[in-house]
Amino acid sequence: MPRWLYTVLLTLAFPFVFLRLWLRGRASPAYRLRWRERLGRAPSDASMLTRPIWLHAVSLGETLAARPLVEAIREHYPDVPLLITTMTPTGSAQVRALWGDDNADFAHVYAPYDFPWAVRRFLAHWQPRALVIMETELWPNTLVAARARGIPVMLANARLSERSARGYERAGLLGAELMRQLTVVAAQDEATAERFCLLGVPSNQVVRTGSVKFDLAVPEHLHDDAARWRVAWSLLQRSVWVAASTHAGEDEIVLAAHRAILQTHPEALLILVPRHPERFDAVAKLISNEGLQAVRRSSHELVGANTQVLLADSMGELLLWLAMAKVAFVGGSLLAPGGGHNALEPLAVGVSTLTGPHYTNFQSINDTLIAAGALTVVSSAAELAQAVLARFDDPELLQRQRAAGAAVMAANQGAVGRQLELLAPWLGEGA
């Protein structure tokens, strides 16, 4: 399909794109806000940046992945302005939670939809010096318009599954044109690097850098903060586990596992962290229907001796919950066609970690972790309960998995430095 036909089809879909936003707004009202930004218009109160680096992170996962790279840029190039865009309210909320409000050297807006006129308006206003796209979010008109203005494009922390590569192959002319717009691809692994080369990106523009997710820096105060919360909530003698980034259908499985755990560990506390804020109320209702005693984080109530579940309906606190736990389960992975979520966050905090069998989004990383004994796969409520109980009851098993995770993390660090080096030509004063 040529790009002109893609643009025609996208234009015909224009009203349906915004109808979808309106319908999603029934569950998450934030989808009904800031539509002007999606059409390439900057908000009236946005900071005026001078030739910023434009970093695009689609949603929550990509924003978290971008954190080490963003913080490295801010540390080593403090005079370079940063414009960070997302596509979803969860990604937007995470940007605000991590880096605060707009200021003289930082701004955050939604990225424009891929309508040519919206992209041109966006680029004319912000005039970025370079575009850094996290992982794999390639929009044809955006990339072509950027390169037409002489803006280099780096695909950072790139990952490309075999299935996605076949999709770009099937796109024919459109897929080939996309690949021609990429200035440099910083691939997470060798398989990703090979796939981009096969799709037409010159081999000298594809660099295997590893994943920046291995470079996650745990805040120095994190474990002290977690210790204070454990004291405040009287958790020192309780067995705590976290179910992170759960999706619809998984919460029932997690709660069934927790019921089984409570049979032998009645003091156990589950911290349940749904992936998407629009599901918070539904999950709260589900917990209530299960007859479990729960506290919502948003209520600011204290976790009491009778509390069996803490519903973490907040943003930006996942690392704190992980630091309070012995075991973590990473969601988005129990039900097909789930692609899984980042298992490196709990490992970086030092938590024994479990995942479901569906983790195609992190295939290479998870396979490495599993082979090293740092990650365990569970497929059902019974297996999840059994794995959590084994770690509650066997401190040596807990420690072995923590040590294995730390070893894998240490062996694979350095991707941020390598990707920062690739960005260096566009970060200097003369860029």
Automatic annotation (TrEMBL):
Gene3D superfamilies hit by this protein: 3-Deoxy-D-manno-octulosonic-acid transferase, N-terminal domain, Glycogen Phosphorylase B
SUPFAM superfamilies reported for this sequence: UDP-Glycosyltransferase/glycogen phosphorylase
Ranges of residues in domain 3-deoxy-D-manno-octulosonic-acid transferase N-terminal: 34-215
UniProt keyword list: Cell inner membrane, Cell membrane, Glycosyltransferase, Lipopolysaccharide biosynthesis, Membrane, Transferase
InterPro entries: Glyco_trans_1 (IPR001296), Glycos_transf_N (IPR007507), Glycos_transf_N_sf (IPR038107), Kdotransferase (IPR039901)
Record field: catalytic activity: lipid IVA (E. coli) + CMP-3-deoxy-beta-D-manno-octulosonate = alpha-Kdo-(2->6)-lipid IVA (E. coli) + CMP + H(+)
Involved pathway(s): Bacterial outer membrane biogenesis; LPS core biosynthesis
Chief localization: other
Enzyme class: transferase
GO molecular function per UniProt: Kdo transferase activity
Functional description taken from the UniProt entry: Involved in lipopolysaccharide (LPS) biosynthesis. Catalyzes the transfer of 3-deoxy-D-manno-octulosonate (Kdo) residue(s) from CMP-Kdo to lipid IV(A), the tetraacyldisaccharide-1,4'-bisphosphate precursor of lipid A.
Official protein name in the record: 3-deoxy-D-manno-octulosonic acid transferase
Organism: Paraperlucidibaca wandonensis
Gene assigned in the entry: waaA
